[in-house]
Write a structure and sequence with these properties.
The chain has 6 helices and 10 strands; from the N terminus they run H-E-E-H-E-E-H-E-E-E-H-E-E-H-H-E. Strand 5 and strand 6 form a beta hairpin.
Length: 211
């Protein structure tokens, strides 16, 4: 495979259980492996219709797309053929849902706050941001979704070990625990993952991103 194909294999695919419930996000590489072993099928979404394809029929679809709509897709180039990079797959023999919650970690806090300081509202690189306890730990503040926000160095110094009202500072937004992993919003902002939106309205949506 070419370097471009290798890059495409590192992309993201939404994985569904056999009842079309979203369960997690996996790499294209893993998705193609499961498709080739007949453990999953590609779910192709077009005009709000879902069509399932096994490995062979996906090859046929890819051949047509290469002829008429090549520019609309990313490609995996093999020695003898090309495949359109799938965006959604469905497991054929798995019907359970994982019991997962959004992990309370630095990555998800940065993603929730869009890497913006929650006091001045400016966006910074991760190396220029820290995490701030709204109610300081010295005053009994806990490390929870509702009490920890992104904060730039300048605002962190200004706030010190005080509450926002004590430092005459205000939060840009009230922090809360996300209902779904914040990092997935970064994928949805990219048009190539638009088909994922079809499966995001399930009340039990719970996706763990595994890079």
């Amino acid at each position: 495979m070419t370097a471009t194909a290798t890059s495409a294999l590192d992309g993201s695919v939404l994985m569904l259980n056999r009842y079309y419930a979203a369960i997690r996000v996996v790499s294209v590489r893993r998705a193609m492996s499961m498709l080739y072993r007949d453990l999953a099928e590609v779910v192709y979404v077009e005009d709000n219709q879902f069509v399932g394809h096994d490995f062979q029929s996906w090859q046929e679809v890819s051949a047509l797309r290469a002829k008429y709509h090549r520019h609309r897709h990313e490609w995996i180039r093999c020695v003898r053929f090309e495949l359109v990079v799938p965006r959604v797959i469905r497991l054929l023999f798995y019907d359970r849902l994982p019991r997962q919650t959004v992990k309370f970690n630095r990555r998800n806090i940065y993603a929730r706050d869009s890497s913006r300081c929650q006091y001045c509202g400016k966006r910074f690189s991760s190396s220029e941001l820290s995490l701030d306890h709204i109610i300081p730990r010295s005053q009994g503040g806990r490390s929870t979704w509702e009490n920890v926000v992104c904060c730039c160095v300048r605002c962190n110094v200004c706030k010190g070990g005080r509450r926002p009202d004590e430092a005459h500072m205000h939060l840009v937004a009230r922090p809360a625990k996300p209902k779904r992993p914040p990092a997935i919003l970064l994928r949805l902002s990219n048009e190539k993952y638009a088909s994922w939106k079809q499966f995001l309205d399930n009340a039990y949506w719970s996706v763990e991103l595994r890079d």
